[in-house]
Amino acid sequence: MASTAQIGIVVIGRNEGERFLACLKSLAGFDGPLVYVDSGSTDGSVAAARDAGASVVELDMARPFTAARARNAGLAVLVDQGKPEFVQFIDGDCQLVPGWLETASDYLATHENAVAVAGRLRECHPEKSVFNRLCDAEWKQPAGQVDAIGGIAMMRLDKVQAVGGFCETLVAGEEPELCLRLRREGGEIWRLEQDMALHDANMTRFSQWWRRSRRAGYAYAEGCAMHGAGPERHYVAELGRILFWAGLLPVVILALALIGGPWARYALALYPLQVLRLVPRGGAERAFFLTLGKFPEMLGVLEYWVAGQLVGARKRYEK
């Protein structure tokens, strides 16, 4: 790996096991500051990180955990260690692709308005389950200037500091929210065509997918509450779709069923029609789960509206 002295890396994780060892292996040879932020692992991750030469932060788990809080803790260490120009964020269940650090840092160095850049994130084992395939399809996004990127990305550290870092109270969706604030300050967010990292979701059960979708609904509701009234209309469209497909339409179907007649069946037919409408965008499998996913997302929305400020609601989403 080439010299990357101007880059620092922040890894966050909890009990990732072999996935974390693979993550560390992908960083072997990196000669810049490396920080690992652990959120209560009991599988030896802390020791493995120290053996790999990382500075380790062990979060106080008496406080509610969020990935944003973990990333900010890593940023604080990088600042204390000399404040590199760029910071690469990566989760402990991911592996960086060789050459990505050089590609991303070169792009930021030659595009002064760019404040954050990401590449292609791929799922390690899409063949393992339908849910892994859904993740891989989700990661596949067009290259170019975008509104937001995910948590695996390289950013200008000083620009992230200038807007106050990640919002630590957000259960999820902290990356798009940060990108929104960066864009408000004139920064550009870019996604490149180059491969960036491999992600190992290891999502093999329906319950895992349901929980992840519910968490997304929570994030949409929370993000919309924060910035939905702004000019970006942050998550307004996403929340509107959830409320229609899993809120209003089921109520209408139930009301029509109580009245009697064929109208309830006609309204119910809107769901398969929606699946058919989405098929050209990603195939039948993804279309089906995008439609079904509105129901766990609705549960997440309701959870935010009812109990969004309670620690108990947040802790259910800890990794």
CATH topology value of the largest domain: Spore Coat Polysaccharide Biosynthesis Protein SpsA, Chain A
Q: What is the overall shape?
A: globular
**CATH architecture identity of the largest domain:** Alpha-Beta Complex
Helix segment tally: 13
What average pLDDT do the residues reach? Answer: 92
Distance between the termini: 30 Å
**What structural category arises from helix and sheet content?**
alpha/beta
Summarize the structure in words.
By secondary structure, the chain is α/β, with parallel strands linked by helices. It folds into two domains: 7-204, Spore Coat Polysaccharide Biosynthesis Protein SpsA, Chain A (Alpha-Beta Complex); 223-315, no CATH class. Helix content is 51%, strand content 17%. The protein has helices at 18-26, 45-51, 67-80, 100-110, 130-139, 157-162, 174-184, 206-227, 236-259, 263-268, 270-292, 294-307, 311-315; strands at 7-13, 34-38, 55-58, 86-91, 94-96, 114-123, 144-146, 153-156, 188-199. Strands 1, 2, 3, 4, 5, 6, 7, 8 and 9 form a nine-stranded mixed β-sheet that branches. Helix 2 (45-51) links the parallel strand 2 and strand 3 (55-58). Helix 8 crosses helix 9, helix 8 crosses helix 12 and helix 9 crosses helix 12 (294-307). The longest helix has 24 residues, at 236-259. The radius of gyration is 21 Å and the shape is globular. The two termini are 30 Å apart. Mean pLDDT is 92; it is low at 311-319.
